[in-house]
């Protein structure tokens, strides 16, 4: 089977076959990114990096700035967006300026270039499995195939999410804390500073990283204390970690402060040239610490409710199964068994103080891997807002656990079917018409005008996810394109807005387009507005306006699973 790469129980195929399977799945990851993937998972994949970087910072395109990046109360660090989407946009801008390619900046390169960088970074996961599998008694090639064949890797880890970066930093942290010398007894001394850097960087990327970092840090601390005879050496390790963590925090705070206050050192000196202390005081006064803003916002239950409240068990019962399928269920089963076993041992044999350190340091790999999986899951479950993507960093401990003791082998066919369905649903179907629609509109907007009169476009989006404006590739100075996002507006509001736009048909070269899913196409018909052109983009599945099963089974199924681009008729 393509997921487990295992033949009948007890007789594994040659290592070469599994290696070939991993190579094919790795090629699929890169190839599907370049195609590109049409599925649109969540607005955050665009509005937490590419949309912001394509604006005034690098390409000067018309964009929508999300609330997290407003200078009045910034909740996201700018360091990672600059290092990822920012770098790729700077590269394609440089290529165009150097005349290496005349039209480097278009909707395709704007979408694919940051995704391609993330796809390259996603192989950090594969490297982590390669390093960790022998240490955690997991079958290397089974673990690699489980990882590469998971739709979470193929879809989520090739997108520009902060959760993706969180998963990669968690993987690096696991590699660092698991690094041992040849005798397996002590941690490599170089890991302390790097652990400090990665933990702090992860915290600034997403403060929830602390939930993922807790168990690796406890494990590392246990190994340090266990392996070092001298208290001085132990203190030295911890001091290195703390100093490097503080230095990294200063770098992030300084970068965010300069970015969000739009102040340079020259400005500060011009404010008060007399004293360096005054300059430092000015900086301190305007200091931006984005994780604290993030936490103060998210710890307010009213704010979380605005983004959707879920039962506390959603991660355990729904999201874990949605992302990892049978592997999550097997982990829960194994977790209960091991918990029962350790409770019995604790009651009968061991004294209380030996319990946790013994479990963390001296146990065989699996119980600790389960803690690496379930402890972050439990902490994330304390918050009422629970989305599946929050759990994607947990794929690494889960595949390592699943690839030990032939756990996943007998479920290989189910695992293959589950990941095929997941890849198709989230990689192709889910809001899958919106990106091709923006590609189509970008070509239309930038097509040569037949007359000298500038054309004006009004693009009205309804019942779709928020459209990323940067994919239309419109310069900030251009005023000939207007984007109206109606979100999930009701029938009356929608009709009023369309009628209002139709009545404002003043210029001779004005074009009004309404973009709407096929499932709510009937709503537009009730508005009594005629359209001169209809373009259907297939496939497009809106979970907010799902297709009705009776209509799907009729001949009209294609329109139900499509996104319409409707052009208003001039003579209304």
UniProtKB/TrEMBL annotation:
InterPro entries: GPI_mannosylTrfase. It is a multi-pass membrane protein. Pathway: Glycolipid biosynthesis; glycosylphosphatidylinositol-anchor biosynthesis. The chain crosses the membrane at residues 104-125, 140-158, 203-225, 237-260, 316-339, 359-384, 390-409, 416-441. Residues 1-33 form the signal peptide. Its EC number is 2.4.1.-. Keywords: Endoplasmic reticulum, Glycosyltransferase, GPI-anchor biosynthesis, Membrane, Signal, Transferase, Transmembrane, Transmembrane helix. It is found in: Endoplasmic reticulum membrane. It is an enzyme of class 2 (transferase). GO terms for cellular component: endoplasmic reticulum membrane. GO terms for molecular function: alpha-1,2-mannosyltransferase activity. GO terms for biological process: GPI anchor biosynthetic process. Pfam families: Glyco_transf_22. Belongs to the glycosyltransferase 22 family. PIGZ subfamily. This is Mannosyltransferase. The lineage of its organism: Eukaryota, Metazoa, Chordata, Craniata, Vertebrata.
